[in-house]
Write a structure and sequence with these properties.
Chain A has about 450 residues and is an alpha/beta fold. Chain A is built from eleven helices and 23 strands. In chain B, strand 4 and strand 5 form a beta hairpin. The chains are: A alpha/beta (about 450), B alpha+beta (about 575). Bound molecules: adenosine-5'-triphosphate (ATP) and magnesium ion.
């Protein structure tokens, strides 16, 4: 029989302090109030004083309420029975299904031994040329989408998830709007992906502390599948809400903030989650795509800044398109040499020309004279934006490469592209009849 | 034997644990928290009354108040001996491949494995004889470790002079067998083994004198060696925003630098990057030795999701191993990526100790810690007259990419060279993205001083002209200014930029740098005749194209000479006569 403790001596923010003995650090507890029972987790021990972070928040907790310690850290059920289900940040069902207790595993488990990782080498095809051609996504990559609120980052994540050839999709929603959740659900359902998806959802109306658990719980489940050889894609949206929740708790615990109110360990906290992305030697993999909204479109804000230092590149979503500049897949070189022999050529050439186009645009805006070369670039830029960059475009990589050649052919002579002759001999289109786009 | 001194846990906050003790304890002493069958390594970092505050090198979940703590009386130490080359250690010197064999996919807390094998046997050859006088650091004999003579040395911790009482003949020994016995003037005997222990936070000082670093350390990166050189035994830093190319630059340096041993400290960065090094180095041949690169490399790997306290110690573990190989008269390069993560580890601990914070919540002692870390670099003359060196290059990851932050600023005060990466250069894919307008070096380049100055000068001039052109347009720029701008761009594209994916261009030896720099110097000094800007642009575009081909043709190959001729012909067409 577990002992009940009733001497709550302090309530600050969502952290309560109770006097108890024989309690383990990070152990789980139940706080039993008139309004129901909430889970809580030990975050500090000082003599008899036990500091508990209450998942449902401290509102309505009275000093006379009861606390029961569960004797184990936070755990989550894993395995096949979770598929198609929806849970909250504490792992309790949000659909009408039963609560699950199968194969419980601890969340926030130990890091993978680096020598048991392999060099990532499998491309994930998304059908989005700005990704497949220019910044290929690689299995086991950890990659955020940087954008400002209002950009279609959730649409982008959903679109990648439904096209990617993965075994399991796990969606971790933090501060997600209910509409957005419905959007994800409907999209997954439309593509028949719901049956191999699992959702852990924290909405903006839920207690802050539950938001903190979403990445850990999602990744613990993902890790379990990956160890069974499954390729798992984890979508985390929006990690900025996770960071803000960290900030709130840190301030409650009177930690000294390091930068704009964020705690000094923000980097380590984020890294502990993102580094769960892995390609296991002789088992499956975890790929993490995360939405990170940037306050004020400022990439030097502590959230995107710390994220960028951890992840393997970023997609920069701006004005509804993936910006070629500012976006980077650091793992692309692991895969884009073995797709088609013109992949790197198209990637480099089109981006260089697009950079030239942007310069010409600037010159045009300043009122400088346009040369015939400038006119060619302006035509090229428009075709590129409409037929490559637009997120409405959805074509397989090979078709996107063909389209690249067609656009170049429409605007330039082979020499003007700077592509080496052996390559243009092989790929330069000879007529316009089978144009791969309607430009 | 006396019973171990013990204490009990009174407070747990993250990875900081407070312990009550009643027998004396020592600052920075290692202690173990006994949690069931687990023993969790910790280090005392502050003592107040009868309470010791310790940083725990492991996750602290499930620990309880009242659990027992055992003090060891030892400072955090590493074992130094043959078998470290090619190895991958964590920040506490646990060999990760062996950890994987015992624990599988995940790291397991409380598992500590001896850094060096107890059973591996080494062929020992003595260098001293009975009756010789020796002191700390003197070479007793050697074993062959990979490509080096690995010297077995009198323990660095011994003070004074000793007489060799006995020494083994040629034979096979493990690191646990004594190969010699020495005695001090009072007749006390000390055994000498193939390995020894050393506390990581204390520099090894068994040498005659520290010398001025005045010989260049050739990295084979043109921008570095020619314009912002690094000296053997010197220090340098690479600050830059995320994605600017710090890690790629260090990886290139770790492959091509002309040194004997490279120690890589992957400190709080991505595991994936270390995996690349771990998996590729055994397959890459070092052209200087014809052995795999891994044979000259030691990796200390404490990546971002591994325990933070061990991250703090990982840079010390790395520099201690570097100093050890220096004691053998070798030239060692230590690359730390990233020192900011080490500084952040200090910040986290300082926060838990509730110390008064300095700027951006870093502790007040940040500067002195950074200074004393870089101070461990240097060229030394050993007692036997040979020299060895430790060169330290640290990546810095400034918050927001802004160099006006405490870690960058504290580092800039103590290093001898600054390779600042800029976002604008990396966005423009001008790699390596070292910004020549902000970087500096206090060391001497092997490029002629006058020529080097000309190089800096044209870059500054080019920058000014670009600024001006933004206002007045190309139309408003004079032809001679425009040509200077083209010269600066040319110098940047064909010399400063280096293609990491081209097998020839990725590394340029010293002789070639001197030769090509001289060639370019003459181009920069030359006057050309152009009828208009288009002609000038066209001329330099073609020149650039030819040079790119030259850069990727092997040094002194037929192709190299052929391209050089083509370049000369091209130049003659526009060269002003006389
Ligand atoms: N010399 C180079 N040649 C070609 N590409 C490069 C070079 N340097 C960097 N890059 C590109 O930039 C990417 C990021 O480089 P790198 O990982 O070295 O950045 P970093 O400064 O270490 O960033 P972080 O601080 O986030 O670790 C690489 O994955 C690569 O695509
Ligand atoms: Mg890096």
């Amino acid at each position: 029989m577990q002992k009940l403790y009733t001497n709550i001596i302090q309530i600050v923010g969502d952290v309560i302090t109770v006097e108890a003995e024989n309690v383990g650090n990070t152990e789980m507890a139940q706080v039993i109030t008139r309004r129901g029972t909430s889970l809580a987790q030990v975050i500090r021990l000082d003599g008899k004083k036990v500091f508990l972070q209450v998942f449902a928040g401290s509102r309505g907790i009275s000093t006379g309420d009861k606390v029961k310690f569960l004797g184990h850290p936070m755990r989550v059920a894993t395995g096949a029975s979770l598929l198609g289900r929806i849970f909250n940040g504490s792992g309790l069902p949000l659909d009408n299904g039963p609560a699950l207790y199968d194969n419980l595993v601890k969340i926030g488990g130990p890091p993978v031994n680096p020598v048991k990782r392999i060099i990532p080498n499998k491309m994930i095809r998304t059908g989005i040329p700005m990704i497949d051609v220019f910044n290929s996504l690689v299995e086991s990559q950890k990659l955020p989408v940087f954008s400002i609120a209002g950009e279609p980052y959730n649409e982008l994540l959903a679109s990648i998830a439904t096209q990617a050839e993965v075994d399991i999709i796990i969606l971790g929603g933090m501060g997600l709007k209910y509409d957005d959740y419905l959007f994800f659900r409907d999209t997954l359902e439309e593509h028949g992906a719901l049956s191999h998806s699992i959702v852990f959802m924290h909405t903006a109306a839920d207690p802050v502390v539950e938001c903190l658990l979403v990445p850990d719980i999602s990744l613990a489940v993902a890790e379990n599948y990956a160890l069974e050889g499954k390729r798992v894609l984890v979508l985390l949206t929006d990690m900025s809400n996770f960071c803000d929740a960290l900030k709130e708790i840190a301030i409650t615990m009177q930690q000294i903030p390091s930068n704009r109110g964020y705690p000094g360990d923000l980097y380590s906290q984020l890294a502990a989650r993102y580094e769960k992305a892995v390609d296991f030697d002789t088992a499956g993999s975890i790929t993490i795509l995360a939405a990170t909204t940037m306050p004020g479109d400022d990439v030097t804000h502590p959230i995107p800044d710390n994220t960028g230092y951890i992840t393997e590149g970023q997609f920069y979503l701006k004005n509804g398109v993936i910006e070629p500049f500012g976006s980077l897949s650091r793992l692309k070189q692991q895969v884009n040499a073995k797709t088609r022999d013109d992949h790197r050529t198209i990637m480099d050439t089109m981006i260089q020309l697009f950079a030239d186009y942007r310069e010409t645009q600037e010159k045009q805006a300043m009122g400088f004279q346009m040369s015939s070369w400038d006119m060619k670039l302006l035509k090229y830029g428009k075709l590129f934006e409409d037929n490559m960059m637009s997120l409405r475009v959805n074509v397989p990589l090979e078709k996107a490469l063909d389209r690249g050649w067609d656009i170049l052919h429409d605007c330039f002579s082979p020499e003007e592209t700077g592509i080496k002759k052996s390559m243009t001999d092989k790929y330069w289109p000879d007529n316009n009849e089978n144009k791969t786009y309607s430009g | 034997m006396t019973a171990p001194r013990k204490g009990r846990v009174t407070k747990i906050s993250g990875n900081m644990v407070t312990v009550r003790f009643d027998s004396p304890v020592m600052q920075n002493e290692v202690a173990y928290i006994l949690h069931g069958a687990e023993r969790l390594k910790s280090e005392i970092i502050r003592v107040r009354n009868n309470l010791a505050e310790m940083q725990v090198y492991e996750a602290t979940s499930c620990l309880k108040i009242g659990e027992e703590v055992e003090f060891t009386g030892e400072l955090l130490s590493v074992e130094l001996g043959p078998g470290m080359l090619g190895q991958i250690f964590d920040g506490l010197q646990n060999p990760l491949p062996e950890v994987a064999r015992q624990c599988g996919f995940f790291l397991k807390r409380g598992v500590y494995i001896k850094a060096l094998s107890d059973t591996e046997v080494w062929d020992f050859t003595p260098l001293v004889k009975t009756g010789d006088t020796v002191r700390a650091g003197d070479k007793i004999g050697f074993v062959q470790e990979k490509i080096f003579r690995h010297y077995c040395m009198v323990p660095f911790s011994l003070r004074g002079s000793f007489e060799v009482v006995s020494v083994e003949n040629d034979g096979r020994f493990t690191i646990r067998q004594a190969v010699a016995q020495i005695k001090d003037p009072n007749g006390r005997m000390y055994p000498v083994f193939l390995s020894q222990h050393w506390p990581v936070k204390i520099p090894i000082r068994s040498y005659a004198e520290k010398l001025k670093p005045d010989k260049p350390l050739v990295t084979r990166m043109r921008l570095i060696d020619s314009l912002f050189p690094v000296a053997r035994g010197g220090t340098y830093c690479i600050p830059g925003p995320f994605g600017a190319g710090k890690t790629v630059l260090q990886q290139l340096t770790s492959r091509h630098a002309e040194v004997d041993v490279v120690v890589i400290a992957a400190c709080g960065e991505r595991a994936g990057e270390v995996v690349e090094t771990i998996k590729t180095f055994p397959t890459l041949t070092d052209p200087r030795t014809n052995h795999p690169l891994s044979d000259r490399t030691v990796i200390i790997c404490n990546t971002s999701s591994m325990p933070v306290a061990a991250r703090e110690s990982s840079v010390y573990t790395a520099v201690t191993i570097a100093e050890y190989y220096r004691q053998m008269g070798l030239h060692v390069l230590l690359l730390a990526d990233s020192t900011s993560r080490w500084a952040q580890a200090m910040r986290e601990m300082s926060g838990r100790l509730e110390e008064i914070p300095g700027e951006e919540a870093f502790p007040a002692y940040l500067e002195s810690r950074i200074a004393s870390f870089y101070e461990r670099a240097g060229v030394v003359r050993l007692h036997d007259g040979s020299t060895g060196s430790v060169t330290i290059g640290g990546a810095v990851s400034p918050a927001g990419g802004n160099f006006e932050e405490p870690v960058t600023q504290a580092t800039l005060k103590v290093v001898g060279a600054f390779h600042g990466l800029s976002r604008s250069r990396s966005d423009a894919r001008r790699y390596p993205a070292i910004d020549p307008l902000i970087s500096w070096s206090k060391y001497k380049s092997f490029i002629d001083e006058k020529q080097k100055e000309r190089g800096h000068g044209i870059l500054r001039k080019g920058f000014d002209i670009v600024q001006m052109m933004k206002v007045v347009g190309e139309e408003g720029t004079s032809l001679s200014d425009y040509v200077d701008y083209l010269k600066a761009e040319f110098f940047d594209f064909v010399y400063l930029q280096q293609n990491a994916f081209d097998t020839v261009d990725e590394a340029t030896p010293k002789e070639r740098q001197i030769y090509v720099f001289d060639f370019i110097y003459r181009i920069l000094e030359s006057e050309f005749i152009f009828e208009n800007k288009d002609a000038a642009l066209h001329f330099f575009q073609l020149l650039r194209q030819l040079f790119k081909g030259w850069n990727s043709s092997p040094w002194q190959s037929e192709e190299f000479e052929k391209t050089e001729k083509e370049i000369r012909v091209h130049l003659l067409e526009r060269l002003k006569k006389g």
